[in-house]
Amino acid sequence: MFDAHRHGPGPNAEELPPRWGALIASSGPRQWAQIAESPPLPNVRYCYGLLPQEIQAFSDTGMDLEQVLQNLEKLITTQRDSAVGEIGIDDRFNQTVPMNSQLLLVERLIGLAQSLDRPAILHVVRADGLMLNLLKRMKPRIPLLWHGFLGSLETARELASLGCVVSIAPSVWRTGTKLQDRLNVLQTPVLLETDYPYHYRSPGEAPASYKKILEHHYRRFAQATGTSVETLERRCDGYAQVFTNQ
Ligand SMILES: [Zn+2]
What we know:
Layout: E1 2-6, E2 21-24, H1 29-36, E3 44-50, H2 55-59, H3 65-78, E4 83-90, H4 99-116, E5 120-125, H5 128-138, E6 144-147, H6 153-161, E7 164-168, E8 190-192, H7 210-224, H8 229-244
Parallel strand pairs: 1-2, 2-3, 3-4, 4-5, 5-6, 6-7, 7-8
Helix pairs in contact: 7-8
The protein binds zinc ion (ZN).
Zinc ion (ZN) binds near residues 5 and 198.
């Protein structure tokens, strides 16, 4: 069971479903440290990224962006099996980091992934059109994953034509998302993710273990698309290969 996006150090084997694999992402220096010492695991790829909303946290400690970017590049270069992510744009933080600066940052980071020939994991919140335009302009020739996708079928199709795979998180089950009613007509490659420990929980739902969250998401997605969990798993494992192929 492949988890296309989660955070934190690699979990213990007993917490995992069978045939587990993952892309374990990080969004800034504090999270890099959590995963940098993790042992290599089969079908797991560690990803080092930087989200615009993290800039404030290290600026407060006296580090500047250029320094952090240098550290990031060094980390990705020395950790030869690593990927770049998560990186992206997030309109909720437009007040602290203006969207123009966010776009410049993410363009630079996609450029870094491209120059090191590593996959990149994208985070996009309320800025789908801007990211889509950037990708159309850059046309990166690396595996691209758009995590936490909640966009339209049209955007999914355009992304697929650019070679970008979308990954769907439990947030799709939030009341009122349009995508949850269209999953059965989504024809493009899709991966599933938990975004653990930042995963969505329905109001009133009791906290569940990591394994339960992942299994529940697969089960619900299989139901919504009229397939079996086994078929869904096999399909996701196939799409995941391009990201874990080390
Ligand atoms: Zn994330």
